[in-house]
Amino acid sequence: MKTTRRRIIAQALAAPFILTGGLAGPAHATAATPRRLWDGIGSPVGMAFDAQGHLFVAEWGPGRISRFAPDGGREVFAEGLAGPSGLAIAPDGTIFVASYSTDVIWRFSADGVRGTHVTGLATPAGLSFDLAGRLMVANRRTNQILAVEDGTLTPVIDDLRTPVGVVQTPDGGFVVSNIGGGVTILRPDGTRVEAGQEFRTPGPGVAMTKTGRVFVVDYGGTTVREILMDGGSKPLAGGLSSPVGLVVTPDETAVMTATWGEGAIFHIPL
Description:
Elements: H1 2-14, E1 35-38, E2 44-49, E3 55-59, E4 64-68, E5 74-78, E6 84-89, E7 95-99, E8 104-108, E9 114-118, E10 124-129, E11 135-139, E12 144-149, E13 152-157, E14 163-168, E15 174-178, E16 183-186, E17 192-194, E18 202-208, E19 214-218, E20 224-227, E21 233-237, E22 243-248, E23 254-259, E24 264-269
Antiparallel strand pairs: 1-24, 2-3, 3-4, 4-5, 6-7, 7-8, 8-9, 10-11, 11-12, 12-13, 14-15, 15-16, 16-17, 18-19, 19-20, 20-21, 22-23, 23-24
Signal peptide: 1-29
Keywords: Signal
InterPro entries: 6-blade_b-propeller_TolB-like (IPR011042), Vgb (IPR051344)
């Protein structure tokens, strides 16, 4: 059992990066079975992989960032943080973490040196990067998605419903999860489509493959769902207790989700 678990972890964290051509089709109707990899995670939210295959997880309750190695090892990367929520890693290895409690975004070097990246936010939740490489912030209290560039905050999307996560799709559109209700698809022409009918409460976990498949956690429920660009969604996996964090594995064969209820990290095959 232990050998099998370590093999799954190694495959999930260290597999080579693979791109598949074209947009993937809808998720399979049959939901995948999540496999538990780690326990004892303290109210996890943001998740991201670095270029070396390490998984970083923001743990809100303990106020820390944990790092999980490709061989299954685990260590505390940073601690003493106030309400770490969203987490994103830039191509140069810089790690960005949103503080939901103090309205700032920190930046960390790969060896753990911390600095303040930007202030003046309003309960920042999920973080991601747009197609131009700008850091995007789901700024919950102002109902906006903001972009950070050279220390300046620029509104990207307004008039949302308490947004907590966002990705920009390959066509230049966006998918936003709103903890106040619904998943908003913003098409490149500005048209908005609501795709959250099957969600109880969409959470911060929004993840996208390089080919444009988008997945969102149902924090108020038990599922991870794939968003369909016509406004529908399909279950990817169920039986989870308040999934919050979500990230696609480097080889794009699976997603990893972290659950608030179980305090655990799960591997879900695509």
